[in-house]
Amino acid sequence: MPTAITTDVLIVGAGVAGLWLNARLRRLGYSTVLVERATLGGEQTIKSQGIIHGGTKYALHGALTGASEAIADMPRRWREAIDGSGELDLTRTRLLSDAHYLWSPGTLAGNLTSFFASKAVRGRVDQVKGEQLPPALQDRGFKGKVYRLAELVIDVPSLLANLAELAGDSLLAGEQIEPLREGDELVGLRVDGREIRAQRIVLSAGAGTEDLLHALGLKQPAMQTRPLHMVLAKGPNLKPLYAHCLGGGPKPRVTVTTHPAADGQWVWYLGGDIAEADGVAREPAAQIAAAQKEIASLLPWVDQGQVRWATLRVDRAEPAQSGLVRPDNAFLAEQQRLLVGWPTKLALAPDFSDRVLASLERDSVRPSAQSDLSGLPRPALGVPAWEQLLP
């Protein structure tokens, strides 16, 4: 087991950003070490809904925003990777749904029609009816309208397993991380006493990045967290649904994704406006009661008698923005050998890797040889929240 390692790129943080970047670098011939303190994707990544957004939900006022344009190409890139023809081979990642949907209660149908007739979203969506509706909406009681978005929903646990496989022997479990300097220059990190020297060091540890920066004696870039209070529902009678329900405002009233549990049942994972401001302030019991009321109002034909409920708090880590607004793009800051960033959304992991690769190209950082990494301790995969909270 090596006590000193030399590599091209040392990455800290094995969420989707670090794992995607690691796989792209390895495919391009770079040597890498990817360090993870806990489990692979075990924080923000495993808690995401798996939606590969294309930006339509950011145009609910009928006008394209910086956010919607920045993310517009992400579904194509992910789809090509899952098909095996893209920048990574994600053919072992499970596709939960080939599309995500927007639906409205009957009272908003008129507004929805005018919204989808606008230039902002023309060509991005198609209306669906009858047997084309998501299974959970195929009920006589459903009176709204539904539009199909060219966005996919992936099974995040299978994505993490796929990316871990692409990582080969580059993964390293490490808890104690300290700077490794020559004079005033950061040349690597000391991980559990093991020296790792690298041409570039990338911090992609999500909410953990702030502590890593402090360990390096740095205060910038500053980080913000935007909290969510998500809701989980599990029951034998739940049917697949991957959709945003519109509420007339700039954010979806509720966003539902459906995930397979180990026992064969489906789990609904609820986000959107219900998980934000008011939801964050609620205690778990009150948040569950609010979700039950919302589902009863929107989907009254769903029998909640056999459904079990739980909540999950999530802190979305991002670069600090004025007014705690959501950043439009992936973010990367550079300071000599150190690169620090956040993808800001699961879908933007390719954009984050683009920014790192552009930095390497600009600075003429080329692949070189790597130390033997055999025998290194390897981090385990993260476990989905529904398997922990609703076994």
TrEMBL record:
SUPFAM superfamilies recorded: FAD/NAD(P)-binding domain
Stored Gene3D superfamilies: D-Amino Acid Oxidase, subunit A, domain 2 (3.30.9.10), FAD/NAD(P)-binding domain (3.50.50.60)
One of the record's GO molecular function terms: oxidoreductase activity
Example of a GO cellular component annotation carried by this entry: cytoplasm
Keyword Oxidoreductase listed: yes
Keyword hit for Glycoprotein: no
Pfam families from the UniProt entry: DAO
Record-linked InterPro entries: FAD-dep_OxRdtase, FAD/NAD-bd_sf
Transmembrane segments: none
Domain FAD dependent oxidoreductase per the UniProt entry, residue ranges: 8-314
Keyword annotations of the record: Oxidoreductase
The name this protein goes by in its record: FAD-dependent oxidoreductase
